Backbone:
């Protein structure tokens, strides 16, 4: 195993409820009486990417909106304000890293193991999460950061993982991806990247057939345990 590839949302941190609240903040700020509760958001998480998720919601619940001439601009504006609200929540410490993640990153660094990020989220979300919890220099700890800004096609398509592998100069089987969702697992499978799934409240119960292992926490997890999981791949 030459590199660990971290997903962000749901993996580095349980961010999705803060995302959900930020979407609701943006709707309220714009005067829309839409409210995404946890049950609806769990359904909407089938679609990756915040802008794509808003469009999915409108297709299902307010199809009349999609006929508006300014629909693309409206979705962009809503997502921009949502990102502002989400980053604000990160900055005031509302979204901690998942227990065990910081220790894993530090162990990887101390042993010289390459680490990278592959996410579909907006770049400023990743930067802010890292800066807040690991310091400004932590952005340089990752050999590369594949985010929603580098590839247009999001998970479950493999594009972001293929981009990261290209940047790392590694074959898929030399890496292990840490994911939380079925969309992330499918993206790994399509890129032939071995994948460990550690679930959260939003993703438990999804179909994780094909992952190397399915756990519920990173707490107390060592690099050696991850290497043992990686060794299980064919
Ligand atoms: C999860 C996503 C993202 C976030 C919302 O990304 O699908 O869309 O839910 O962030 P990952 P944005 O698990 O790949 O980190 O609104 O910035 O998309
Ligand atoms: Mg995720």
Residues:
């Amino acid at each position: 195993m030459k590199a660990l590839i971290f997903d962000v949302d749901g993996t580095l941190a349980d961010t999705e409820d803060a995302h959900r609240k930020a979407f609701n903040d943006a709707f309220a700020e714009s005067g829309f009486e839409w409210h995404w509760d946890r049950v609806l958001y769990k359904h909407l998480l089938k679609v990756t990417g915040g802008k794509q998720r808003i469009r999915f919601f409108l297709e299902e619940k307010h199809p009349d909106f999609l006929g508006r001439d300014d629909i693309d601009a409206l979705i962009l504006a809503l997502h921009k304000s949502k990102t502002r609200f989400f980053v604000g929540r990160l900055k005031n410490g509302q979204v901690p890293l998942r227990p065990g993640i910081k220790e894993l990153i530090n162990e990887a660094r101390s042993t010289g193991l390459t680490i990278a990020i592959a996410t579909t989220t907006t770049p400023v979300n990743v930067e802010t999460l890292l800066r807040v919890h690991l310091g400004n220099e932590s952005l340089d700890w990752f050999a590369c950061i594949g985010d929603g800004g580098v590839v247009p096609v999001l998970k479950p398509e493999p594009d972001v993982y293929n981009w990261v592998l290209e940047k790392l100069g590694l074959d898929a089987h030399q890496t292990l991806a840490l994911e939380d969702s079925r969309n992330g697992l499918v993206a790994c499978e399509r890129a032939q990247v071995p994948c460990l799934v550690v679930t959260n409240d939003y993703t438990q119960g999804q179909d994780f057939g094909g992952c190397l292992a399915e756990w519920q926490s990173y707490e107390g997890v060592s690099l050696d345990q991850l290497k043992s999981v990686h060794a299980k791949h064919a």
